[in-house]
Amino acid sequence: FRLLDENGRQLGMSRKLSELRAEWGRQAKQEFSDLHETPREYSGMRDWTFGELPERIEVGVGDGQRLFGHPGLVDDGDSVSLRVFGSPEEARQAHRWGLLRLFMLQFREQLKYVERNLPGLEQMAMQYLPLGTRDELRRQLLDLSCIRACLAEPWPTDAASFQARCLDARPRLTLLAQEICRLVGQILGDWQTLRKKLPTCKVYADAVHDVEEQLHRLFGKRFVVETPFERLQHYPRYLKAISLRLEKLKAGGMQGAARDARLLAELAPLATNHQRRASVLAKQGVRDDQLDQFRWLLEELRVQLFAQELRTPVPVSSKRLQKMWEGM
User: Fold this and answer.
1) Engineering a disulfide at 244: which of 94, 193, 200, 307 sits with its beta carbon 3.0 to 4.6 angstroms away?
2) Any idea which of 77-81, 82-86, 295-299 has the lowest mean pLDDT?
3) What's the pTM value of the predicted model, to 2 decimals?
């Protein structure tokens, strides 16, 4: 593969397209963004005042060349702006947060009430301290409440569908916030209990290291809002599975440790494959829905291996995941 500039000069060459994307992708995105700055009339917006939003538009890039650009809203904090992106994935990622901000601007007064009445916030904030501040947790709880109320597929594409979604979401917002607080409160409480239990299992170094790595992946600073909600609902079961695994280790003696090591050896190659691939895509700024699905199936495999009594919502095994990986 050869990468050329607008004058036909070679900028780079590789046998792997992914390597060129990793090296030049960010610069290409920045140059595309610079070429298509947001017009003043499409910035500082607080309502849907920009007509219908098409999935893609044709844009010029100089010397008569035409490319497809992908419009999306961008979150500017107290307003939104409309920008053109070079790929549909990039546009969708930005648009999700821009659209969320536009909804939240419509619910300003209601959100003030919801914010003052988030149940259990103070206790959750104490449990969340290893990850961040009370305000960071509070913002995530409000964001997730609005995501659940407003961002069901398909997203609005014009003013009429946007206003219809606002009317539908408004009466559900407070109840959804209460439901989310109950779930997150349970998750943080279980997480804190598990973190206290880990030091008592230090003699099982490999298992504890694996659990710590698992918890690190599950509990990023923004796990509340960045974890798909359908997966966040499974967090209590994932944490219960980890707790059962540690209990079996402590109760099983040498046999229990040997069993855990055998199961970990079965899991490890699949987890390593995923982590390597995810690292490569992260450097390229690319998301892969199939890889995301594989990641959550790995969590289900952990339940199946270490706490089978909890059951999984779908059939899962090492052989199934290995076959899926080969297909990917």
Assistant:
1) 307
2) 82-86
3) 0.87
d(CA 253, CA 179): 41
> Which residue is listed with tokens 């796990």?
223
- The tokens for 77 are 């904090």
241-291 pLDDT, tens digit each: 999 999 999 998 889 999 999 999 999 999 999 999 999 888 777 788 999
Question: Secondary structure of the chain: what % helix, strand, coil (to 5)?
Answer: 65, 10, 25
* Res 30 pLDDT > 80: no
Residues forming a β-bridge with 73: 82
127-145 pLDDT per residue, tens: 999 999 999 999 999 999 9
DSSP 289-322: HHHHHHHHHHHHHHHHHH-GGG--SS---HHHHH
CA distance 40 to 50: 12
The Cβ of residue 93 has, within 10 Å, a number of other Cβ atoms equal to 15
For residue 27, give Cα distances in angstroms to 24, 33, 35, 121.
Answer: 5, 10, 12, 42
**DSSP H helical segments within 87-198, as ranges?**
88-106, 108-116, 121-128, 134-150, 159-169, 173-197
Q: List 2's β-bridge partners, or say none.
A: 13
Q: What phi and psi, each to the nearest 5 degrees, are found at residue 120? A: 75, 15
Q: How many residues does the chain have?
A: 328
The tokens for 67 are: 């490319």
| Rama region for 197: left / alpha / beta (φ>0; ψ in -120 to 50; rest) | alpha
